[in-house]
């Protein structure tokens, strides 16, 4: 159908109305997934995708009596590309539910388009606070985490266990800024003092100069928010420049993430981080997930694998509740909002106000086991709920 | 004051690392007039190949230090003979486009072979210790980089400006036809230079990997930085590249120290200022 | 008159597109037209004046962010947003131009890159103004009075109209005496100077015009997507548009348009099928450089000549004898 | 004295780094004069032209045109005032056609240089095109009108080089070795055209072909070692022993 | 020594040389005359391999050259002084000479070139591009001599040289001839060329229209072939 026809109706009613009937007849639900499969975030995109596929495989790609079809598009972590891909998914593939987005910018970019087209969207990674705050939409629900959850959960623990003075270093982009701000808020609320802050640019690979600066500070510990290659470089150089012996390193789970620790090597030992899932969580759900994942892909799952796995399960449960009827987007989001189960990361459910997930957070310590490092769970912060503003 | 001294050492070692990364680009541009946008990719291959050698096959950094650059040189050889050669008569812009295309191709080849995870290379034990200077701990490897950088600079400078080869090579830049008509197999010269450029890029990859790491899209980040250094120094001048590397290294280190948020801005600002004041870079020459 | 007829045909076809093509394709077409305007503006510098810029995204970004901020904070009126976008990018171009005119060749390329990266840093870091790395979202649709460009088809027509204005305006411009001076500068600036032209001024004007039209394209992009992010100011954007110009055929009017169409289509289509889209696109660049150095337009010309030659083979032989 | 001279050079010098190429040159040129400039290779003749046209700034001294100081005026403004040069080394728009080279020159002269809203074609700019065609006809280059400059032979390019200078109808024309590389017959033809240039045109010509230069010039200036060695009538210069020694060659053979 | 047989050379579609044949004998000078655009430079370029001929032969001491790349032709002993000098502007005078220097026992050395052209010695460290026209011409000649050729192709070597330098070059060519070098000289300065010539060729529109000794090239023939009315 031509553009004129589709837009003629789109001002008033959901655009995917006309075609849903078609899909229903064949009993197929189409899930669109926008993830980065190329560029800097490619490995995250791959893990998310693998996690989703693992779960869909487990239910034989069927839920509520309909077949599940997943169409993946590469966003290249570029918001404009993501928009282009989203339009393709909506218009050409006629998807019923959207999921994905690793980069927060991508999530924000698709936000208006999703909202005005009433397309149910389950955000499965992007953690920008605003997506479930000021930019909240009836059609957007998030099953991953928010920056606030990650940063805030560490605050009180750090004050009690590390000390009263902390130096803060975070990658200079919205995510890094948000997480460290949340940490600072909680840490100061607990009574601690941030004695210095520094924000190296994203993708900075030599931290020598920053480490020299940090090294001359009077602090009890250093909070670092870095991810990916930044994290590897930071943690390694932190040790090489002799800081590790002087200040304990704390941060978010990505600092010593599952897929990075091998590269980081022993330098990771002794880091304390906050995260919402870890490989070594000792629950039945997690053991089952880890075993299944390792069997399917012959490597350890990462936190992104888990995110994908959970997102898939949420979709499946919602579809089951709907009996496979995806005609009405409002019903879909309602079904999603009611999903609640014990995931490998612990019990999860949605906050009906913010549309954001309520979950446990864990403080872990990195320890040496044999010739590699593992994260050990020290403490659980239960049912962390984003304040939503 | 100690902190200033320590930052100076940081700046110097970062600067010479930049030099090691950039000198191949500078050589190829200065001599062939080819702005090799795939230089970063060759650098990346150097790092990845070294990774494979140290992590899986031989576990020897020393072996990687020899084999990885040679393998990259081989890639450079193929690129020059098969792709670059037909474009010499088309002008500089074509080569920019061609090597850019190559960078894309190499990017995906690398991610197909090595995936998109973050990797590192472990340095041999001799270098893995640290030394205390200005009340600050420095990894020995960083200091070794300073020495290696100076060594390469000396060798390149000598060849380029003190030997007949240097003259022939630079003559080819202005008038290939005439160099040929005067009895020099300019095509061969170009191949050799490009291969040496590749060798240096690969070597840079191995040396830099323990410091800068190996991660997807590393080549583009390196490329931009290398281009900045190249331009600040002045095109075609190895000495200029050296001065610029050290300058950029020190400016970047101190800007991170003094204005951490502005460091990205400042490097490009530095380049803009240098070019506005000296339109041919610090040591570049302009000939009528 | 033949060209006139073909222009009209193309226009009519474009005008009818929304009745035939699906929404997705219309959106793709809109994007192509926007990037075509952008590429055309760069082509003034690269193709006609011989100044190869790797910082053109700066103006695109300034235009896009100006339009976005205007629409959010001031007015979503079409003329006000576009007007301000053009004025701001023009001013930025005028400022940057003062410095860039001092250098030439590869140094020009790098200096433009430097300025655009500085603008990028600014956009990236002024989180409160520009949204930083997350970009600016929730930008209202543009309107004229009460009429709102509320759906993609209306926006398509808006973009088409602006594209036509830009295309024909630039066509006139490059063929005017002024444009011919630019071509002269590309070929040999010293000579043109000693003909009595103030070449510095001509280059400066070319730079400003290119910047302003680049900004115009940027503002359209904002209207189109309702969103703008720092990636659109990053050097990769400058690189992409430069490639559109080169692949299409620098120094021609049609080239950049075709280049934009090819690159956008390839990026969209290929990456839906494989994650190794960079490999395929990269290989395409290489093939172009080696086999079609004159770009898409060059291919067209050779085909045309081939056709012509076969048709009157006898005549051509005569001519070469005489020469 | 200064008043009547159209071009006055007052103590001009030029150094490149430590090399003092031109030391102290003073010269007055009057309207309609034809001045021949000779001197050994590397004496600084081309450099002198570069100073006059503003392609290089002098290291010292002043230059006046019609009593106005032009020492610091950029070259394109001097061209507009009627001082036009040709280059010793062909310096053309190599990728364009002969006609385009000429049109670009003429459109400036006729004042259309800044028009940006009207396409340049034969219909809209009749004057430019007519003049271009006439010039090409007159210079015997009509058959080359649409040839791309870089595909012309060296001597043909030389002719275009001079044509572009003359086409601007200058008041002062500076020719740098105009006939170098031209064959005898072309030289004769061009020299004939130069003779026919308007009487009030002031001509400065650097030329190693003595037949040409002695034929055209009213006054000769011999540059040597950065200064003026001899100045005077062609006859006088030809017989000057110093000039013979450093420039023409000791025995008066009929080589040239 | 050097023999050119029935050369046909094209630039793209346009046929420039229509069967040019000529010879340069051992230790002799052949000159090639012709008006502008008649194909002299094209002939030279065809011999040295810069514009490979479509058909015909170039034979040097019994070996065919026409299919070889230009650097090999040069190495086999063909030197070139190109039209328009074409020195390397981004190299100093010394480096310009260094690039082509091929040492041969008793052959040309850089110092000998400096003796020949003292002006170059004075400008030793100047960039080639900054030299005056005449100085560049000297450099170009010096550069060609340093390849120590057996046959030297000179394309208008007197262009831009002062009369005294032209005489100097004439003397040099005479000396070279005595020392056994063969030369093909293209010149517009006909009287200079005739002073050196053993054999004269005149080109017109890519065809040899005169082929004879210097004596046979009488002033009337000269007038007929080189004046404009032809
Ligand atoms: N930019 C420059 N830098 C250094 N030296 C220069 C420069 N330009 C010219 N020269 C030197 O100045 C001298 C004069 O050069 P110029 O070109 O004026 O000579 P000329 O009289 O025109 O000689 P010719 O008759 O050979 O053309 C030469 O020795 C040349 O090497
Ligand atoms: N690259 C080229 N492409 C096409 N035609 C060319 C090219 N070079 C030269 N020609 C043409 O070939 C013909 C012969 O040129 P050539 O340079 O051999 O002449 P020439 O006898 O050396 O003249 P001159 O005395 O002016 O140097 C000329 O008509 C010229 O226009
Ligand atoms: Mg001169
Ligand atoms: Mg010639």
TrEMBL record, chain B:
* Residue intervals passing through the bilayer: 12-35, 61-84, 96-119, 139-159, 179-212, 224-250, 257-277
Q: How is this protein annotated for GO cellular component? A: plasma membrane
Q: Name one GO molecular function term.
A: transmembrane transporter activity
Q: Which InterPro entries match?
A: ABC_transp_permease (IPR001851), BCAA_transport_permease (IPR052157)
| Record's keyword terms, sorted | Amino-acid transport, Cell membrane, Membrane, Transmembrane, Transmembrane helix, Transport
Under Pfam families, the record lists:
BPD_transp_2
Q: Could you tell me which CDD domains the record lists for this protein?
A: TM_PBP1_LivH_like
The answer on whether this UniProt entry bears the keyword Membrane reads yes
Q: What is the lineage of its organism?
A: Bacteria, Bacillati, Bacillota, Bacilli, Bacillales
Entry protein name: ABC transporter permease
Q: What does the entry give for GO biological process?
A: amino acid transport
Name its cellular compartments. Cell membrane
Which family, according to UniProt?
A: Belongs to the binding-protein-dependent transport system permease family. LivHM subfamily.
UniProtKB/TrEMBL annotation, chain C:
Instruction: Recall the GO molecular function terms of this protein's record.
Output: branched-chain amino acid transmembrane transporter activity
**Under the cellular component aspect of Gene Ontology, which terms does the record hold?**
plasma membrane
Pfam families (UniProt xref): BPD_transp_2 (PF02653)
This protein's record includes keyword Transmembrane = yes
What membrane topology does the annotation report for this chain? Answer: Multi-pass membrane protein
Q: Which residues cross the membrane?
A: 6-26, 33-58, 78-99, 106-124, 154-174, 201-221, 241-265, 277-299
Source taxon at top rank = Bacteria
Write the record's keywords in alphabetical order, separated by commas: Cell membrane, Membrane, Transmembrane, Transmembrane helix
The cellular location(s) given in this protein's UniProt record come to: Cell membrane
Look up keyword Iron and say if it applies. no
Q: Which InterPro entries does the entry link to? A: ABC_transp_permease, LivM-like
Main location as per UniProt: membrane
- Name assigned to this protein: ABC transporter permease
Organism, scientific name: Alkalihalobacillus alcalophilus ATCC 27647 = CGMCC 1.3604
Automatic annotation (TrEMBL), chain D:
UniProt KW Transport keyword: yes
Q: Which residues form the signal peptide?
A: none
Which InterPro entries would you find in this protein's record? AAA+_ATPase, ABC_AA/LPS_Transport, ABC_transporter-like_ATP-bd, P-loop_NTPase
Any matching Pfam family:
ABC_tran
Sorted keywords for this record are: ATP-binding, Nucleotide-binding, Transport
Keyword Nucleotide-binding on entry: yes
Protein origin, superkingdom:
Bacteria
Tell me one GO molecular function of this protein: ATP hydrolysis activity
Per its UniProt record, what SMART domains does this chain match? Answer: AAA (SM00382)
Residue span, ABC transporter domain: 7-250
Task: Show the GO cellular component annotation of the record.
Answer: plasma membrane
Q: Which residues form a coiled coil?
A: none
Q: What is this protein called?
A: ABC transporter
Which organism's genome codes for this protein? Alkalihalobacillus alcalophilus ATCC 27647 = CGMCC 1.3604
TrEMBL record, chain E:
- Coiled-coil annotated residue ranges, if any: none
**Listed InterPro entries:** AAA+_ATPase, ABC_transporter-like_ATP-bd, ABC_transporter-like_CS, BCAA_Transport_ATP-bd_LivF, P-loop_NTPase
Pfam families in alphabetical order = ABC_tran
Q: Name one GO biological process term.
A: L-amino acid transport
What are the recorded GO MF terms, alphabetically?
ATP binding; ATP hydrolysis activity; branched-chain amino acid transmembrane transporter activity
Checking SMART domains in the record gives:
AAA (SM00382)
Keyword field: Amino-acid transport, ATP-binding, Nucleotide-binding, Transport
What is the protein's given name? ABC transporter
| Occurrences of domain ABC transporter (ranges) | 2-230
Gene3D superfamilies reported for this sequence:
P-loop containing nucleotide triphosphate hydrolases (3.40.50.300)
The record's family statement is: Belongs to the ABC transporter superfamily.
